[in-house]
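Recap from last week: sequence in, structure out.
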Amino acid sequence: DVQLQASGGGLVQPGGSLRLSCAASGFMFGDYDMTWVRQAPGKGPESVSVISHDGTPYYADSVRGRYTISRDNAKSTLSLQMNNLKPEDTAVYFCATVAKYWGKGTQVTVSS
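Predicted structure tokens:
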């Protein structure tokens, strides 16, 4: 079975940091481009960052300069370092392959 389990979410004050992790299994992780997608209440999903199978990162304008995506193909893990968090970053964050597999999300809440 394909599994993508995100973890590391929580409650953080504005300006704070969190690091999300995603453990993948059940497919050839190193063959896939990966993405972090978030969904805020009442809004559609937004892909905030993508990393190609060989490690090239891409960022949405809303997070560029604050978020850093990384991957470890040997360990089948995906990470997202989030700095200088803002209230508008509040959402459920999911890790996913581009266009195929989705995992369970982790809640990120940025509030004072």
